[in-house]
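Sample A.
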Amino acid sequence: MDQNSLNHADERIITNKYLSIWEALIPIVVLIAILGYNVYIYESDATSGPNQFALIIGAAVAAIVGFRNKITYSKMIEEISENIKSTAGAILILLMVGALSGTWLLSGIIPTMIFYGMQILHPSIFLPACVIICSIISIATGSSWTTSATVGIALIGIGSTMGMPLGMVAGAVVSGAYFGDKLSPLSDTTNLAPAMAGTDLFTHIRYMTITTVPTMAITLILFVILGLMQDTSLMANDGTTLAAIKETFNVTPLLFIVPVLVIVLIVKKTEPLIALLVGILLGGVFALIFQPDLVAKIGGGTELNFVNGYKGVMNAITVDTSIETSNKVLNDLFTAKGMQGMLGTVWLILCAMVFGGIMEAIGALARITDSLLKMFHTVFGLFASTVVSCLALNLTASDQYLAIVVPGKMFAKAYKEKGLAPENLSRTLEDSGTVTSVLIPWNTCGAYHAGVLDVTTFSYLPYAFFNIISPFMTLIYAAFRIKIKQLSDTK
């Protein structure tokens, strides 16, 4: 569990006896109304600014509600500060990923992945292969974020050259990434959920497989069907794409050294920021070694020397970088945004943290969760209220850690009173809190994956089958009392 999740696990849940459930819901209703109208007007461009300001308006409404219920301005600012502080690591990772994509493009790492991937992965099996590849990497690293930033970017590139709908490809990447993240003992959320519920890590992981494995099986079947439905005759590679890559880049298996090393560092529990920085620096070195002419061109020269070499690598790290080939599809693909390109996503996360911070300060998050807890009295109702609470927290707090911590602390006693083993709660927190965070554009996870994969959240949402099915799977098991462990079974 990283320091970010530890900070969330230790925090106190703020309650407000003056606040009614209807008052707690007012900012959410206002926010959803504005966000919905933004999507209607701006469509996929809503996250370029309108949604950010919608979150500020929602925060202002929440602040007015707070003032009416005896919450001070300083308390709200304090919670906003804590929320923004908790995202510092995520923001730095986003900037590092922007830099990584630039140096990995310039060095030829991503083009080389695409070059070999196109020859190995047939279009008809590409989508399920994406799920499996991302699952393996995510289990090994314990991070859906690292998976998207490395193999995810390459798979998006391969899918683009094949003519695959990018929303489908991103949905496959996200599904595999979150399957691995959910089951990996290295994952922070996989450690956080049992800590909140009161069970141990490996009991939690074993119990999660009961719902997670069937969900993944359904996900793979759906992607196999989608893959078979694609017109592969239109995607058949005639060699021109591969030729265009070889004409532009020095393609060599030696370039795989960098991504493999980054993944190994993560597996060895190296801090993600350090591993990504190593990947960026090695990407720049490999660019100078393997693509000297391209580096010189990006640096504004014709022959490589120290000045244009430095400028070429630094430009790839910080700003937009475009590399032209003889293939129009590749021209659109071989563009990296650098650190600058991640600023829109950072802006979205900061605004989301303002809204989430004020909602937390006024006691709205605790009030909503407490109201959901009181609505249900059956075992199924308890599971259902946990799922709804996790979804509500992902929508309002914009943070997957809070979507695990708040319901985990609020519901632990209720599960015990029903005679249910704590792993029921920890599994439900993961089935509904961890995996749905990536489906919400203004959640830190949704903003991250959309920014890294350069595919809008609403484009991949319909195809993130694993993430959509997971909460329903846990509710089906609860409704039919399948594998619902009692406290008496653990004695």
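Sample B, a different protein:
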Amino acid sequence: MAFLSLIIVLLLVQWWGSGKPLQRDQWFYQLWLVIERSADRLPFKRYTPIVLALGLPVALLLALQIGLYRADGWFWLLLLNVLVLLFSLGRGDFSASIGRYLEAAQADDSVRAAQVLDENNLDPQLRQERTSSSWMDLHNEALRVFGYRGFERMFAVIFWFMVCGAAGALGYRLVVLAWSRWLAVNDARSACLGRVLLWLEWPAARLMGVAWALVGNFEVCMQPWRENCFKAVPTQRFLSSIIRGALGDDQACGSNTLSATAATRIEPAYSLSLVKNLEGMFSRALLFWVVVVAVISLTL
């Protein structure tokens, strides 16, 4: 059933371009607000509201799934999986965002390119680290921004769906929504939730790296993967070095030897080519994940 749910969701995403028709987040923010208004009557009121706002929907979904399972409601379980998965996918149209960035780059409009990156950025350190608007710096930032957004949009959701079912996918998306909301208002508690998100993404990001290595440049990709695998490196930074290696950029592994490719590379055209190839890498990795899920489903 998990594999069938995933295939249906992927077909619907191809049709819609994203899961937007079912991605309505206001109910979650309203629930969170109601709980916060009652925080004075709750213990540990600094974090209790967000814990309840995250835990209650997941608990209700689990209860509903158990009820449907006991009633042999397989069709309704399938429908529930599809609906929750569509809701849990990342917000926005990933392909359209990359397309807008590439259009800005081709028009030599660095202001518009930086705006696209800011709209898609979920890394609070990136804007602080941007020291110039040179195209090379923007393309490097684009690899980090789009590399992470492509991962959190679909691959992390699929991972937790396969591990914990629809409740796992929903829980991951709600944590991302809460973290994004706290980042938007510069709430100090976002750092704590960011650490929770880091550990939620840790196993999925490492599997993502293996998938990229298998569908890209294996040797160059695996060197930074091995160096950072067991370090508490922020997911955005980890994925950035991995995907550069998968795309064939041997500088991602810190090599001091200048390869023939590196010797002839011309910047910023080379960095832009990496951004152009990013979406193709995600497509190949998604196909790989679908095959793996199919094999697991057939063997269980």
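Observation for Sample B: The chain has a mean pLDDT of 86.
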